[in-house]
Design brief:
250 residues, alpha/beta, binds 1,3-dihydroxyacetonephosphate, glycolysis, Aldolase_TIM, Triosephosphate_isomerase, triose-phosphate isomerase activity
């Protein structure tokens, strides 16, 4: 049984003051959630602060991105070892905002995936199609291509210690959630696609859904057999909304 993991991607939001209040709210309600784990991914500038605030609690910490390089002359980037210094258990790689706004290629994302694992951090590999790709009927091909970039470079076993997040780009921040059936269809495809190479890896793989997930739709999404958690943007910025998603599972 793959118990769900719910991760909050705070993106580039908040201030030191608002983030302190958010973490305080999460800490007061974390005992009532119904999932394997809740994690938060603050902006890099606040990792040290949030790391200290969640130490010793059941709230896990994640980064939003990392460098593909281990160290060196890469101004502005954050290395996996640095995330590790602040006890990051997870790091998001290949978020659609990195792929589509910052132009990250499938190959660069695969390198970041490997850099995370080399640093002992579980990568959350985001995949998903643009609206026009869904309309062209190439959703599965896009997801397969994004996953194959990792498998081709590092082998299917690399997916063993990872999470995949299916985030249809048209559902991110738009209020348009994929229906549970639409999401389940793609999640099942992803699992079958990995299963063609290694069934045991596919069976153990956690596949999170992301895209306008909230307290109102989380239960139906998480009830689907291949939806093993959520990657939450907007609804992770208010403690009560995020905790309600954690209580909606199961
Ligand atoms: P929203 O939940 O705001 O749609 O964002 C989803 C997302 O991009 C999480 O990584």
């Amino acid at each position: 049984m793959r118990q769900p993991i719910i991760a909050g991607n705070w993106k580039m939001n908040g201030s030191l003051e608002s983030i302190r209040a958010l973490v305080a709210g999460l800490k007061s309600g974390i005992g009532e959630v119904n999932v394997a784990e809740m994690a938060v991914c603050p902006p890099a500038a606040y990792l040290a602060e949030v790391s200290a605030l969640v130490a010793g609690t059941d709230i896990a910490l994640g980064g939003q991105d990392l460098s593909n390089a281990a160290s060196g002359a890469y101004t502005g980037e954050v290395a996996g070892s640095m995330l590790n210094d602040f006890n990051c258990k997870y790091v998001i790689v290949g978020h659609s905002e990195r792929r589509n706004i910052r132009g990250e290629s499938d190959e660069l994302v695969a390198e970041k995936f490997k850099a995370a694992q080399d640093a002992g951090i579980t990568p959350i590999l985001c995949v998903g199609e643009l609206l026009e790709e869904r309309e062209e009927g190439v959703t599965e091909a896009v997801c397969a291509r994004q996953i194959d970039a990792v498998i081709n470079a590092y082998g299917v076993a690399a997916l063993e210690n990872s999470i995949i997040a299916y985030e249809p780009v048209w559902a991110i921040g738009t209020g348009k959630t994929a229906s549970p059936e639409q999401a389940q269809e793609v999640h099942a495809f992803i699992r079958a696609h990995v299963g063609k190479q290694d069934q045991a890896v596919a069976d153990g793989l956690r596949i999170q859904y992301g895209g306008s997930m909230n307290a109102g739709n989380a239960a139906d999404l998480l009830a689907q057999p291949d939806i093993d958690g959520g990657l939450i943007g907007g609804a992770s910025l208010k403690a009560e909304d995020f905790l309600a998603i954690g209580r909606a599972a199961g």
